[in-house]
Specification:
single chain; alpha+beta; seven-stranded mixed sheet; five-stranded antiparallel sheet; 3 helices; 23 strands; rod-shaped
Length: 456
């Protein structure tokens, strides 16, 4: 019941506050009003009037509480949240609301995602017409969003990490550990809606978190290569036990057919293993291992061992019938490490020269004169210059040999005519021995003839 206001009036008389004093027999005094004429009677202060005030106050308070409760319910307080199927940008009163995203009148709401309910709860906090914040939850508690009004302009909705598989936009920063606990594929790094590349960046320097020190992933939309890059130092694959595999680690222990595995420094400096061609390659045009062959397509091929490894290299063909082939277009040379002219000896049980008739052309019987050539060629004792490196002459045994330029021309060989052909030298000695034997036979024949004549 609404409160009925009472208009109170004052009582006015001719002589206000005027009294006649009467002495009583018991010694007391009675004051008898002597106000004269009454001008206005006024509103009497009586129990009825005062109780009416109390009654109307109680009724007004009860009615006001009901009205207040009904008013705050308009904003979702003290009862169910208020329904607001409107443009969410137009909500201007702080309160708790709910809206149906399937309603055509509802706009500027979070898009409905997989598993989400069309209805969402909304909390709106209004600072003034230019500044406010809204938070929203879907009925199924799958997703939560928030946005703010900044200087009169609403920002886009941002999804909070409430759902089982949240989708974040922007930068997600964690100042502690980021732990993924799941069986199987625990972490997925996926490309964005328009960027066809995805990678993980690493920033090692705690004082410089702007310069990337390394990254792992697909760094460019223009390339399908998976990259591991370290701008500061090495990349190490160091298991505490077992192996490091490049390729399929299954039973076959090999990469898929027709694929390449690269260890690459630059465009022309790399190591490649090709499963399609069954070869290994160092560099763009240099060393290759193909079908059991080692080939240097660029320059000199050097196989070197260190002193710590035993100071020797081995080319081995296992088995009693195994052969080792050294193939070249011109000649094979044995020199000191790092040189092409400091020659070194070969030690073996025999040096065999292929001499089958089928390997030869233009075969002729050697002409005479071998003995004369041998007798006219000086044999020298000498040191090789390399023999004296770091030593005195008396500390090194001298060698015996011929000098190119003095030796018979048929003994000179090698692509630059700087070597003596030992097989040719032995053959020349063989021929000289035959010539000497012929001379001996002639001398013996002459001696026998002379002796026979003398006996006669």
């Amino acid at each position: 019941m609404p409160y009925t206001k009472k208009v109170w009036t004052d009582r006015t008389v001719e002589r206000p506050l005027t009294f006649i004093m009467q002495n009583n027999t018991d010694g007391t005094i009675t004051l008898i009003p002597s106000e004269g004429d009454i001008i206005t009677t006024g509103t009497p202060i009586t129990a009825t009037n005062l109780n009416a005030i109390e009654t109307q106050y109680d009724n007004a308070m009860a009615d006001g509480l009901i009205e207040a409760q009904n008013w705050v319910k308009l904003f979702g307080l003290g009862g169910p949240s208020a329904i607001k199927n409107v443009d969410l940008n137009t909500i201007s009163e702080t309160g708790f609301y709910r809206t149906n995203r399937g309603d055509a009148n509802v706009v500027n709401d979070p898009a409905i995602g997989s598993g989400e309910h069309a209805y969402i709860y909304i909390i709106h906090i209004e600072h003034d017409p230019l500044w406010a914040i809204q938070s929203a939850w879907d009925y199924n508690n799958i997703s939560q969003w928030t946005r703010t009004k900044v200087n009169g302009v609403w920002t886009s909705w941002k999804q909070a990490p409430l759902k089982d598989n949240p989708i974040f936009t922007g930068v997600l920063t964690s100042n502690g550990k980021l732990v993924a606990s799941a069986g199987g594929q625990a972490v997925d790094i996926k490309a964005g809606p328009t960027e066809d590349h995805a990678y993980i960046g690493f920033y090692k320097d705690s004082q410089d978190q702007t310069n990337r020190s390394g990254w792992l992933g697909y760094g460019s939309a223009a390339s399908d290569d998976l990259n591991i890059t370290n701008t500061l130092g090495h990349i190490r694959f160091a298991p505490s036990s077992g192996y490091v595999y490049l390729g399929d680690y299954g039973a076959a222990l090999e990469a898929p057919a027709n694929t390449n595995i690269y260890l690459k420094k630059s465009a022309n400096e790399y190591f490649r293993i090709s499963t399609g061609q069954q070869d290994m390659q160092f560099g763009a045009t240099s060393l290759t291992f193909t079908n059991g062959k080692i080939k240097n397509n660029y320059g000199t091929l050097t196989i070197e061992c260190s002193a710590a490894a035993g100071n020797y290299s081995i080319l081995s063909a296992p088995g009693s019938d195994g052969d080792v082939y050294l193939q070249c277009g011109s000649e094979a040379r044995v020199t000191a490490p790092g040189t092409t002219s400091a020659f070194k000896p070969i030690l073996a049980s025999a040096f065999q020269v292929n001499s089958v008739k089928e390997a030869k052309e233009n075969i002729e019987v050697a002409s005479d004169g071998a003995l004369e050539k041998i007798l006219s060629t000086t044999v020298y004792d000498y040191h090789l210059k390399t023999d004296l490196e770091g030593k005195l002459p008396h500390e090194v045994k001298k060698r015996k040999g011929l000098i190119i330029g003095e030796a018979p021309n048929e003994l000179v060989n090698g692509k630059d005519d700087t070597a003596i052909d030992l097989y040719a030298m032995n053959s020349l000695l063989w021929k000289a021995l035959q010539e000497m034997n012929l001379k001996v036979d002639i001398l013996e024949h002459k001696l026998k003839s002379k002796t026979s004549r003398e006996k006669k």
